């Protein structure tokens, strides 16, 4: 593998990893606050794709308006899921909440199968994301340029929210002791809803870019990227936003390089991502940011 090919695979890996990171942030925030592995999060990503597709194809909205509307609508879907499915189980056992999350996942998949059918829909790719730059033989698709830039911008905004605002302070406090925070007069349910809103917003953002990268969507499309994003959150140290982003980049880059280095094993690329996760956790069970996780969440 020469330097040009190496750089090309790195560009592709950064782009893919930033998508995993965006979705992984939702997993890690929800777990960090209420200790729930929200297995419906990959399907929330799928919901964002369909909202954007519906806005462009059926409502004839400009792509930017459809994308923005999709992210806002998906954020409220996340809040509704929390209020309807998870809030009644705040004091229940973790296994009850986990089973509920799996049930929500199946509900969303089957709801969209009934409404939109199982035939994949062609996702329109705006021309601004469709071109590519050729720099000394290395192809930079526009989508691969925009994806990590936008992911980094939203990650930075999220970190500012978490560390520079009272809502962020409340989220971090909830991750340590919910009953005590409630006694201090904080509206705990509102803050938890805000966590679901932010996580779902970012999942929709990741979903829109995923749909432009692989422009054929179906109601089951969120399963595998959702699982890999969960693996990224665990790898980075679940409960850490920065760790989730780092884990996403590691999973994305390693997946691309496995396919490039061992093309005959390309069919097993999904398995390699989880094998890599297991290998890392054998040596660092708390994930990459696990040490910091003991001192502070997010």
Quick structural gist:
By secondary structure, this protein is mainly alpha-helical. The chain has helices spanning 3-34, 41-57, 63-86, 94-116, 142-164, 166-174, 178-183, 188-213, 223-236, 241-261, 269-283, 290-293, and strands spanning 121-122, 132-135, 138-141, 216-217.
Side-by-side strand order of the widest sheet: 1-4
- β-strand percent reads under 5%
Please state the average pLDDT score. Answer: 87
Largest β sheet strand count, sense and barrel closure: 2 strands, antiparallel
The topology string of helices and strands comes to HHHHEEEHHHHEHHHH
Please give the number of β-strands.
Answer: 4
Distance between the termini: 38 Å
- Rough outline: globular
Number of helices: 12
List low-confidence stretches. Answer: none
In percent, how helical is the residue content? over 70%
